[in-house]
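Team,

Forwarding the record for the chain on the shared tracking sheet. I've put the sequence and predicted structure together so nobody has to dig through attachments.
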Amino acid sequence: MAKVELTPLRPWDDFYPGSERFAKPDGKDLAKWNNRVVSNLLYYQTNYLALAIAVFLVVGFLNPLGMFTAMAVVSGVFLASVWAAENRSVISNFKRNNPTVFVVAVMVTSYMLISMLGSVMVFMSAITLPLALIFAHASFRLRNMKNKLENKIEGAGLKRSPMGILLEALGQQEENFLKIQSLLEGKLKE
């Protein structure tokens, strides 16, 4: 098994500028959209981590106690959901059949618990804002061949990354790599 390694920070001109590199995802083809999001999450994961850390630092500086509360609740809910999916077959089947609904359920549960603790605005700004920015970028950013190749290497197990492990825990990896593999094989045959 390959050791876990963080992907390199992608250059700014690859990550953001250039309107020709962005396009509205096809809302009618959810599998293709999901594939684009997962591919971009894997390829730009270090850039996304830097973005999230920057937002966390700003919000944490403005409200440190609320930030700690929000992080503890989200981490607890995420770990509990992963544990439940590993140890309860009903939850595991639900996660496998409805991965997006599972992720939304984890987020809604986190939100409800944080609202009971009075840190909703911290949750909204420190957790939801970076997630929304990351999801928007991953949805609109078109993939390039280098992106697809990196994902293929990770999918084959030659390389492991923190985002790959996270996506695997959320049930977003398996089917998507099979789709990427068949797409690349089709491109190679052309």
